[in-house]
Specification:
There is one protein chain. By secondary structure, the chain is an all-alpha fold. It has nine helices and no strands.
Length: about 270
């Protein structure tokens, strides 16, 4: 059920942001655009209007919106116009369920499970939004960072000092790389959302595991980038979203980072 809601967030929230930006730009420009007709913006929230088929505008019934089951029952097609429904919807629902079960099995019936579930669901939405729009909204990343700091007031995962330093060093680690690349090439190598996402994980598990996070996300990102170049599916003008790799590496580090880091150091020695 949460995965089904995240599908709505991933689809609607970027559109809601675009509508807000459009309105703010027109207000800022004022007289400069007064003679330019404004486009019609239909009210859009995460709850309204009700979900419809994008092809035929068929209103989706509640029994057509049961996670995974409805997609299988409808054979992946709209009940009205028979247009295909992306398999991504049930995959997101199933993935969210699996990740949630893994978190619950790892920490059991504890506050840790509750808070990490909130983080996990936020990461799922951030990953998909970044893949679709090359965007990591502050409205999601910043609350997750503050949540990490708040839960560590009592040292739920790490001491608060480590959490604060983790958030600061996490942001600065990529920001410094960004500045060096900017000075060397005159181009932006990554977005500011990536810095904030690393800061999120620093706030959750402290500064000590940040090298592991950056190492894993960089390796995975490099492998994916090389693969896309080999397959000739890489568009250098568009770039590659780095957020999904940070999110995956950070989630893995939060759950098993201490064991992985100990194994890695022992291997080097």
């Amino acid at each position: 059920m949460v995965g089904s809601f995240l599908n709505v967030v991933v689809y609607r929230f970027p559109k809601m942001l675009e509508n807000t930006w459009y309105q703010e730009c027109r207000e800022f420009l004022g007289d400069e655009v007064k003679d330019i007709p404004a486009k019609e913006i239909k009210p859009l929230t995460l709850s309204k209007p009700n979900s419809t088929c994008p092809k035929c505008n068929h209103a989706i019934k509640f029994y057509e919106n049961i996670p995974i089951i409805s997609w299988l029952f409808l054979k992946g097609k709209c009940s009205n116009c028979k247009s295909p429904i992306s398999i991504r919807y049930p995959l997101v629902e199933a993935t969210t369920a699996v990740l949630s079960v893994v978190v619950a099995m790892h920490w059991g019936v504890t506050l840790n499970t509750l808070f990490v579930l909130l983080l996990t669901w936020g990461l799922v939405s951030l990953t998909l939004i970044d893949l679709d729009h090359m965007l990591l909204p502050d409205q999601v990343t910043l609350p997750l960072m503050w949540l990490g700091l708040l839960v560590n007031i009592q040292g739920l995962f790490v001491p608060l000092t480590d959490a604060v330093l983790g958030a600061a060093f996490g942001y600065l680690s990529l920001y410094i790389v960004f500045l060096i690349f900017k000075l060397a090439t005159g181009k932006d190598g990554m977005g500011f959302g990536d810095f904030k996402l690393v800061a999120v994980f620093g706030a959750w598990f402290g500064w000590q595991l940040l090298p592991l996070l950056i190492l894993m996300s960089s390796v995975v990102g490099a492998l994916v980038g090389i693969t896309l170049m080999v397959l000739k599916k890489y568009n250098k003008d568009k770039g590659i979203p780095f957020g999904p790799y940070i999110a995956i590496a950070g989630w893995v580090t939060l759950l098993w980072g201490d064991g992985i880091w100990s194994w890695y150091l022992s291997t080097l020695s």
